[in-house]
Each structure stands twice: as C-alpha cells, then as structure tokens.
Specification:
The chain is α+β, with helices and mostly antiparallel strands and 343 residues long. Helix content is 51%, strand content 10%.
Length: 343
Amino acid sequence: MIRGLAATGLLALALGGCAAAASMPGVGGTKDGPTPKPAPATPGRGEPPKEERSPEPRATAKATDEDVADRVVAVVNNDAITLGELQEAINDYRSQTRQETPVSNEFVQQFLTKMIEKRLQVQEAEREKITVDEAEVEEELAERIKKLGAPTREELFRDEMRVARVINRKVRLRISVTEAEINKYLDANRQKLETGLAYHARHVLIVPEGEPADAAWEAARIKAEMLRAQLLQGTGFAELAHRHSRDASAKDGGDLGTLKRGELAQDIEAQILSLEPGTVSKPYRSSLGYHIFRLESKETLEGEALTRAKAQIREILFREKYDARLEAWLKEIRQRAVIEVRL
C-alpha cells in the first residue's frame, strides 16, 4: 500500500524548476531503503567505558535534506521505497526522455505506481527463484558495448554522458517556448484541446404520437414550447421530466449525468454546450422528437484545466523545436566532418 504520498508535493516542487540532470541509463537502480544505523559497540569485560563524545554539529539544512530524502513513500511487501530513490528515478527518466515541463503531483504519483509495479515484479522473480548468472550479465553488457563501439563499460557510460551534455549545450539550452507561442497554439487548437472536458446536463424528450405525421410533429412542438414556458416560470426540471419525458432518463428526472465531450451526437452536444450553466434551451427537433435541455455545469479551459493545457502545449512546442534543432545540428556536424564509408 502506498504511504506518505503527501511527500509527492515536496518532490514535485524540488523537480519542477530545474532541468533533469544527465545520468547513467536505467531507472530505480538505487538502494531499496534507508541504511540501518550500526548498533553501538559494547565495551569488553574489564575495559573502562569509553567516554562518549558529542557528535559534531551539522548544518540544519543538510540534516533536513537527508531526512526528506530518507522519507519512505511506499512499502512493497516490507520493501521500502524512499523519496530520494523516487526523485533519482524521475530525474533519470526526464533526462532520457528530454522532458522539460515541471513535474506535477499527478506525474509523481503515476511514476511511483510504476516503481511499485517494478518492485513487485522483481519480488515475484525472486519468489520463483529466477536467477541471472554473472556470466550472463557480462555477456549482455559485452554485447551492448560491442554494438555501440565502446571498448569498455566505463567508456560506454562516459560516452553517453558526454553526448547528453553536448546535446544539452548545443540543442536543449538554445530552445525556448514563449507565452505568446503557447497562446497562439491554444487559440488555433482550442476545440481539440476541449475534447474530453466534462459537462452535466438534463433532458426532456417529447415524441410525436398519432397520425397524420405532420400533425403529430406539430403537437409535439407545441407541447415542448409549453413545457419550456413552465420551466422558465419555475417548475422543477426533474418533476417535469418524470411526468412528460419519453427518454430513458425520465426516471432520473431527466438527468444525463456527467458526460465527456464527444460522447453524445454532435448536433445534440452542440445544443447543450451552447447554453450557459443554469439555462434551458429552446425546443430542438431531432429524428426522435423535440428535446429540451438544461445545462447544469461544464468544464472550460480556465483555471486548473487551462494550466494543464498550457503545460501540454509547452511540451508539444518544445518537442517540435527540439527535434528540428537536433536535426539541424546533426546536419551541421555531418557537413563539416570527413566521413568515408567503406561498406
């Protein structure tokens, strides 16, 4: 069970304002928990007890940092995951995936879930007595070194770190995404970004009945107009829907529940979303009959939703600029190099 998720806010704050540090590949290859402190030595028989000295004073800030890093954020079958391990794993991941956006609490919790799942898999492998010989490890490492053309494992890691640093200097640090660029993208793609936002609505359906058809449809329209007038005069929507609606939602007072944009037919959804919260639509004719809608609430690209959308846009624009800049830089260094292919 996950414990101490309140610490994720502190971790997100620590990671949010800084770029990911370059590090060796692999995630979570750290200690499995805080190192236990050794028990104090017991003096031998006949030996005078040694005088205990007060510990050297340490800076309060340093002690606080160590305490935070050692904080246990999850326990997996008595196997602890500390905040320091989680932070190191996230830094590794952000470095490898070139992520620059600030870390959110949601991202930290999702990453912690992945670490828990990984720890569970390792524990399961141990339970199944699955082992990997040292020779197999060396063979796999040697194969990777051979593929990458590095003479030793130290050289392999050193080259990867050097490449990460030169890319950081020549590409990443020369890219910026401005607020104006984000707003321009937002305006051009607002409808797409709003997909998935939720809204809550109620509904009354008046179905034409009897013959001839034209007369039945006209009667349904007139009834819908009368019902709307009653709603505007203060009649409760749920009461009216119970008595008159022919939709399956009538038993719930016409309540359609919370819907995501895109779940209903496009024309129906357009009618609902054109309303302001708390207002009632004019009768709308569809192939089923006449509808009256009341919009209870709807999410918009404001507040937290707007903040999340802008963070996504920043990541999209940064990725586009990064790929273009990296391609241009690689082209530049190829052009000034002397390359002879003898394949």
